[in-house]
Amino acid sequence: MILFFRQWQGELLKLFARRRTFIGFGVFLALEAFILFRLRTGGLRNMINGALARQGASLEYYDSALTMALQVLGISCFLLGGIYVTLVAGDIVAKENEDGHFRLLLVRPISRLRLLTIKFLTCCCYTVVLVQFMAGSSFLLGVAIKGWGGGFFALLLVDNISELHDWGNGLYHYATASLFLAFAMTVISSIAFFLSCFSIKPAAATIGALSYALSDLILKQTPYMQDYEHFLLTKHIAVWGQLLLAAPDWAVVLRSFTVLAAVNASLFIVGAAIFESRDLKS
């Protein structure tokens, strides 16, 4: 196991040594600053104030760093995070093949399954780090603007989530929800990783995974899929919003995250079977 963790550490160092790995972090910071500016002055602020007024809640108390951070995370995480997660995961196997590195990598005492396991775990780790960076930096920028304290108005209009918390409970629910969101987003990286196991270009794996994720999202938002939405991954990903409620429906949360875990495992197993059958020598 020590050798396994050393090899995983080496793969992580290789990933985070690339400049393009950090593009998503930089782009998100710029978008985050713009959204927070609009939350202070634009229509988003009016929307939140209107929702608070309908609940009879204090505008000054709930207009806090946590309320602003959740809006930034809800608006940007799936679309912007999905782009950079698929970019890294679609690249991680296909790029090695394109550059001809597999002959050298497999000279070491390492099996193909172990090599793929290390790369899959690296994709999952990158996804969790990226989402937690989004959640943490949104919160810290919110604190810089609004200061520490206040209430937490958990509002996700798309998923019909609306809940009021005090500061302590708000911090707990925001942190817990962001962790579940990070795990849910690993299913997007798993799709890109699965496609990357085929003999295709990295760009094709990235575009294929992104196309699937966006098609799934579009279908979720149409009224024609209401009877079949349990087949849509975005329906299960959206369950992270349940963790923002004071009393989450744990049966729904457990069911959706079991589905996501099963999809992750299935994509890895099928991807590994495809990779094992490939001729990497010629």
From TrEMBL:
Keywords: Membrane, Transmembrane, Transmembrane helix. Coiled coil: none annotated. The chain crosses the membrane at residues 21-39, 68-94, 115-133, 139-158, 170-194, 257-275. This is ABC-2 type transport system permease protein. It comes from Prosthecobacter fusiformis.
